[in-house]
Amino acid sequence: MKAPSKTILIQLDTDSLPSSFDRVVAVDAGVDEIFSYAGVTPENVESLVHGAMFTRGPRDLKHTAIFVGGSRVADGEALFGRVLKTFFGPVRVSVMMDSNGSNTTAAAAVISAARHVNLAEARVVVLGGTGPVGHRAAQILASEGAEVTVVSRSEGRALQTCDHIAAAVEDARLTPLGWSSDDGDVARFAGADVVIAAGAAGVELLSTDQRRNIDSLKVAIDLNAVPPLGLGGVNVMDKAADRDGVACYGAIGVGGTKMKIHKAAVARLFESNDCVLDTAAIYKIGVDIVGK
Fold this sequence. Notes:
By secondary structure, the chain is α/β, with parallel strands linked by helices. It has 2 domains: 8-101 and 257-290, Methylene-tetrahydromethanopterin dehydrogenase, N-terminal domain (Rossmann fold, 3-Layer(aba) Sandwich), CATH 3.40.50; 106-254, Rossmann fold (3-Layer(aba) Sandwich), CATH 3.40.50.720. The protein has helices spanning 20-28, 46-53, 73-86, 102-114, 132-143, 155-168, 208-212, 251-268, 279-290, and strands spanning 8-13, 33-37, 64-69, 94-97, 123-127, 147-152, 173-178, 194-197, 219-222, 239-243, 246-249, 276-277. It has a 7-stranded mixed sheet with strand order 7-6-5-8-9-11-10. The protein is elongated.
């Protein structure tokens, strides 16, 4: 009797070295073999995708999958799109995009917030909202009906991100805002139920006093693990810690949920040969396994 096909994950990384983090998670998710490729671009990916498509029979295609990663999310999105265009008809394999952990981290942050507020009725401020994680967190929040303020130092970039999200999410309620912590005035955040800090590592986006001055705040989530943290007074280990009457989460506090989602998403790839795991699909997996 023929032995069951081993599961093979083909890791396509846009960086010069494939991510060791993504490889470890794949092993922990139960993948049998990982083929890792670095420096992958839309221009050189076709033969790698063909190798995944044409080496196994139709019934065994579900045992091969593709993971798109790397530190540059825009490059990952371009690569992800090219991979999907290479497939034709039923000759395809499942594929997941999580460059820089952007989709799994954003999903975990939103699920953490949903433990404390009804997202459909919530007002959420996303600091660093034009970055890879902030953008995707804002997109997921908008898809759940939240009123989202996308904050960036550049209002133009915030507007561009809002336009991008609006194209993907029907009836999205979005407000672009140019603001930085140097401004000091958090009056424009009045009424916010949730603040998510998703900016660059080692940059404080909101001081402790500024956070405390948002009287309506119920949840504060900081996704930066590098000191100084993104939200003043929030500890990297916080997981629903009560600070000044606000449920606070630090990067490691959210990280446990992120890891569960990441492993579950990799495992999901091998359930069929036509699974496409983008921002919305990865969030749905998170809701299915963790709950809102």
